[in-house]
């Protein structure tokens, strides 16, 4: 999916579940995404930053710009470069706005420690804190944060827990369980012994192949499968072969440290903070029902849905 939009461009308030989640449907904008391909890709080389003793990567365009910064946060198994169309497009169309994209700890080119210091294990508390502290220490200005899938859950946590760092939050097909789901997970959580780890490793090896990655991506990029190119497949595969990749996979799936539910986090977001949803209806994992639920939980949300 390539989402190229004007963040918080619409001030429409939608008042019912049906109108909030359907009336603002918009065709996917392919031309803008394709324009971004011609932009100098040097920004993708990235930079290094230290976060709690770990090396993390981030990318930036217009670093010295004076507008409100945008910070993009990727989803599970992805990286900063997955915003390869969006970052240069928004940097060139939003005046002097600085645009950042980060690699969450354990993903992309960031370090993949088996024991993330200061946290029980990988989970939304870790990644949400990383987003907020990245803004505080690197961006150094309150920012608009944009998160996809797992990154949306992390952004929701950052906005609710560290509101002084966040001007607004946009959730792009965001993941994140409800509080009731978390309690059920705690009760049914699988063991972390040899068998559990062996099964996870088998699944990891099956996923870590070019054909398998491409097959999975084709199920997600339903609007334009030409975006599933060698570059995108490489962005998924290369980090999976780096040191610590399996440990992160195991600890962020089987052993993931559960955090607050999305319903709890939404209730904690300050009333003055703008919240928007950007949703692709064909997402097989973060389905539109999640968007509808988020609308019910926070009626003031601004919504833009995309369809094929």
From TrEMBL:
Protein's recorded name: AB hydrolase-1 domain-containing protein
Annotated TM spans: none
Source organism per UniProt: Rhodosorus marinus
Limits of the AB hydrolase-1 domain: 70-291
Alphabetized InterPro entries for the sequence: AB_hydrolase_1, AB_hydrolase_fold
């Amino acid at each position: 999916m390539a989402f190229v939009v004007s963040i918080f461009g619409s001030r429409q308030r939608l008042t019912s579940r049906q109108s909030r989640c359907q009336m603002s449907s918009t065709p996917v904008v392919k031309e803008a995404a394709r324009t971004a391909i011609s932009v100098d890709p040097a920004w993708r080389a990235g930079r290094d930053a230290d976060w709690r003793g770990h090396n993390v990567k981030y990318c930036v365009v217009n670093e010295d710009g004076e507008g409100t910064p945008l910070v993009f946060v990727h989803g599970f198994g992805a990286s900063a470069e997955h915003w390869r169309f969006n970052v240069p497009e928004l940097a060139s169309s939003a005046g002097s706005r600085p645009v950042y994209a980060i690699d969450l700890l354990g993903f992309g080119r960031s370090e993949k420690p088996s024991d993330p210091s200061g946290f029980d294990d990988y989970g939304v508390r870790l990644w949400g804190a990383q987003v907020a502290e990245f803004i505080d220490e690197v961006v150094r200005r309150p920012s608009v944060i944009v998160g996809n899938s797992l990154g949306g859950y992390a952004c929701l946590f950052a906005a609710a827990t560290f509101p002084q760092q966040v001007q607004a939050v946009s959730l792009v097909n965001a993941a994140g369980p409800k509080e009731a789901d978390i309690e059920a997970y705690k009760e049914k959580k699988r063991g972390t012994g040899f068998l559990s780890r062996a099964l996870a490793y088998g699944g990891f090896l099956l996923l870590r192949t070019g054909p398998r990655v491409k097959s999975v991506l084709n199920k997600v990029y339903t609007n334009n499968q030409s975006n599933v190119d060698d570059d995108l497949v490489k962005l998924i595969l290369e980090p999976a072969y780096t040191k610590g990749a399996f440990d992160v996979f195991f600890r962020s799936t089987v052993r993931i440290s559960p955090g607050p539910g999305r319903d709890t986090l939404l209730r904690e977001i300050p009333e003055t903070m703008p919240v928007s949803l950007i949703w692709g209806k064909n997402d097989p994992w973060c389905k539109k029902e999640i968007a509808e639920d988020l609308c019910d939980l926070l009626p003031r949300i601004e919504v833009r849905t995309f369809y094929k």
